[in-house]
Amino acid sequence: MLERLLLPENHAISILIKDHDRVKDVFDRFEKSESGPEKQRIIKEALSELKIHAVIEEEIFYPAVRKYVEKDLMNEADEEHHVARVLIAELDQDGPSNDHREAKFTVLAESVRHHIKEEEGEMLPKAKNAKVDFEALGREMLARKKELKTRGVPPDAEHAMIAAVHGKDDTPAVAARRTRATQSSPKDSDKVRSVRKPTQGRRTIKSGRASKPKRSAA
Ligand SMILES: [Fe+2]
């Protein structure tokens, strides 16, 4: 998007594009780093950037330009934010010991890269022509960012949702095996099935109901 170079520094769109560049840089560093503490540190940095960026878009930028951009584009952006927030909530909740953590972050990065491409390729060029004081909007966004960095980001529905189901369905494969166990015939239900959870030890399911998970030796 060549126009980015022609916009004033405090133009709302310049601020968003700078955020996008910074986030993409963090994703690149994640891919080039070794698994372990370095990747974990980068995940933490990315989550913080993404949460603040999402809030300024959702609270300030999207409402200001929504009526000037096609409804479908704005709705798609809303849904992409929702999906990203679900993954962010899971990453916030699961610690570094979760063996899906790096894979989950990779999926988040792919999803956000796609979202950025659509915003910069479709939404922002249309929003740029809106009858909006983009420099005033930019100042409002910068002030809100400062506030979020100091006071933290507000809680969201996706964090509440993930907190409510946490530990029940760690992966689709575990959830599918649990469903199959609960739907098995009465004869089969007498059999004891074993299900391995990624972050816990082996646990047993009898008559379709899970026993308490055993603590792992670690
Ligand atoms: Fe966005």
Short description:
The protein has 218 residues and is mainly α. The chain has eight helices and three strands, in the order ααααααααβββ.
What is the architecture of the largest domain at the second tier of CATH?
Up-down Bundle
Kindly report the name of the CATH homologous superfamily of the largest domain: nmb1532 protein domain like
CATH C-level label of the largest domain: Mainly Alpha
| Portion in strands | 5-15%
Describe what this molecule looks like in 3D.
There is one protein chain. This protein is mainly alpha-helical and 218 residues long. The protein folds into 2 domains: 2-164, nmb1532 protein domain like (Four Helix Bundle (Hemerythrin (Met), subunit A), Up-down Bundle); 168-210, no CATH class. The protein has helices spanning 12-32, 37-65, 71-93, 101-127, 134-151, 157-165, 172-182, 186-189; strands at 192-196, 202-206, 209-210. The chain has a 3-stranded antiparallel β-sheet with strand order 1-2-3, covered by helices on one side. Strand 2 and strand 3 form a beta hairpin. Helix 1 runs antiparallel to helix 2 (37-65). The longest helix has 29 residues, at 37-65. The protein is globular, with a radius of gyration of 22 Å. The structure holds fe (ii) ion. Fe (ii) ion (FE2) is lined by residues 57, 77, 81, 115, 119. Fe (ii) ion binds at residues 57, 77, 81, 115, 119.
